[in-house]
Automatic annotation (TrEMBL):
GO terms for molecular function: ATP binding; helicase activity; hydrolase activity; RNA binding. This is Activating signal cointegrator 1 complex subunit 3. The chain holds residues 209 to 1040 of 1144 of the full protein. Residues 245-496 form the Helicase C-terminal domain. The keyword Hydrolase applies. One of its GO terms (cellular component) is nucleolus. Residues 328-360 have a biased composition (Acidic residues).
Amino acid sequence: AGPTAPVCQAASTKPPCKPAVFVPVDRSPEIEEARLKLPILAEEQVIMEAISENPIVIICGETGSGKTTQVPQFLYEAGYASPDGAIGITEPRRVAAVSMSQRVAKEMNLSHRVVSYQIRYEGNVSDETQIKFMTDGVLLKEIQKDFLLSKYKVIIIDEAHERSMYTDILIGLLSRIVPLRAKKGRPLKLIVMSATLRVEDFTENKRLFSVTPPIIQVDARQFPVTIHFNKKTPLDDYSGECFRKVCKIHRMLPPGGILVFLTGQAEVHSLCRRLRKAFPFQKNNTAGDDDKEESMEEIRKFKKSRKRKKVTTLPKIDLDSYSVVPVDEGDEDRDAETDDDIAGSDLDLDLGDGDSEADEKSDSSLPLYVLPLYSLLAPEKQAKVFSAPPPGTRLCVVATNVAETSLTIPGIKYVVDCGKVKKRFYDKITGVSSFRVTWISQASANQRAGRAGRTEPGHCYRLYSSAVFMDFEKFSAPEITKRPVEDLILQMKALNIEKVINFPFPTPPPAEALAAAEELLIALGALKEPPMTGRLKQQLAAKLSCPISPLGRIMATFPVAPRYGKMLALSRQHDCLPYTITIVSAMTVRELFEEFDRPAVSEEETAKLKEKKARLLQMQKLWAGQGTMQKLGDLMVMLGAVGACEYAGCTRKFCEENGLRYKAMLEIRRLRGQLTTAVNSVCTDAGLYVDPKMKPPTEAQVTYLRQIVLAGLGDHVARRVQAEELLDDKWKNAYKTALLDDPVFIHPSSVLFKQLPEFVVYQEIVETTKMYMKGVSAVEPEWIPALLPPYCHFGKPLENPPPSYCPETGRIRCHRPSVFYRVSWQLPAVEV
Ligand code: ADP
Ligand code: MG
């Protein structure tokens, strides 16, 4: 179903409205030429007229049509930016915010002081900034400080089709801010940009916009992309299939970059290694002529060597496994002949028989310039994909989903799509998450295919059949409907939106997720608990519209999850703040340690991985501390790792030698700085500063830290199942939690894995083969009632009290009757 809103196509009959000002931009001739090729340039006037006449405009256009890079420039030239009002652009991904700001600065020949970016950990915004790229989360935080966004004249919400949670909320909030700004006489323009035409959730939602905004569609100058479906699906070994496919393309098809979509970092690396091995390439051959000569020699040598062993190293191609159907007709498998330029003779080559003609014809001798691309990759490595590959090579980018819409990689002619994506799935109520590899949506598959047709006709190889494609869901569901929303609700409450349920969400989150979030926030003390009077129905309604508490306000100022915000809010005791800041930063950044349990391509590599893993385990043991410090468990390891790394100057070398992820360590450093600033702004007298080389905490401090962590992770308490309680074998070494009926276990990577403390708190539960707790610390049972009264209440003794029930000391019952906390009445030593 197409949109019902008016679609502006031709310029209106009115005389073009002249911009009040015209701000010249000094672009280089090459940039001007490249710009002119972008489809959006033809629509500049339509777009600018629509913006001048409407407060809200929607722009739809295929990825690569020039929305992100050009629309800010149109606005800038038309005088929409000034020192007292900038153009703000939000991106759901950090990668895009950084690289797009750099690209636009370069195109406009302006410094990054004028075209800047801000992401959670860093930014280069200055007082001259006029075009500001940022992540959607950053803008949401700004709204909290300045609801009317008075620093901006225009807000562009980019990649709205991704329906990221913060993007959705921003559109809801801006639908209210825009009219408010108009009333104040300082109009704010809102531009929503989307890669697909599916914008009904925005346009047809009467609660969102009272007047349906115009939709401008930019006709993409998309070259035809021939879709090749696999006949057989599903393939378990899609990574291997990708390898075979890339080899085949590289050996047989005309020049043009290859873009492979895989699901995760480990897969990306493993495919990169396999490809580099199959088509070796000496890097650094772009520098000078000498280098070039050398590289040509390299290529010649390589050609020779390939000739000798080519038959054995390359897999035989099974031509029958593909059927070829043109785009838009993908409803059935067809064995039809194709009209495209790769059918026929080239493809008919049989590579398996060592036919020398085949060898001459194929350009298999070209080295393959293989680059990985995923969001955790260091930015300077990410940026490599934008520059031309070294002469005499073919570019092959092996990417995760980041390459689907956010980034346009130049020169791609072939796309290999495994059809899968790795997503984090959450249980809406318990927040238990698991990473699962699932099929993508049809919309995603088409986006991926589209990446092949940017500069010339291309080809997309789908490693699944068209029948499977037809079973894909049409679009993936908006993020907000699929994850816990406590962070979002806290942010909204901080904006004094009390009846969250009445908020104009483009797609509202499920009622049970909203209720779970409010309940958690009440338990954390972030919301004022409603009086428990009146009928049950009224009580429930009251629970869903609690105002924020003073503690909640403090928690909301920290750019971290509410649970962590609470830890920070409690840490102004016993000089614990620097440590809590570090622990919270480490938990927020996640994945501090390198993953060495990945499949290796050679025995040599296997041995290397093993060695590295042993070294990491040894270091973790060291970082876990001694004596009672060890009870802080994995969080002590995080603290120790960050401390050690900073002590060594946070160098790449130190990280590599000790199994730490360098990028994570840099992010932790930045987040520590940012949280320190946030803390100082809340408690102006704290005078806190980060000494990267913090000294280790004392034993007493570690005990306080354990209590602080417990207070923050309140609903994440687990009690070890006692021998007498064992229901069956599946409960061996298991823990019971307040939220789940199933057994959960301490993750084998935890330093507490073997110790099995009686009570623990966990950072998160991740489901793989079992439910595993990660980020585990031991806590003392007597702390629980003092620190977490909302999670405990005193009940009558059970008929069959569990053996841990202790009549002298009393007992605490959690909300779930299945979990009993045995406690003594001694009050803990912590001041809360
Ligand atoms: P859209 O937002 O519509 O997807 P973009 O504005 O991101 O399109 O990209 C427009 C064009 O600009 C792309 O086709 C690409 O060729 C070019 N481009 C974008 N970023 C870079 C970059 N960092 N380096 C070189 N070219 C780029
Ligand atoms: Mg874009």
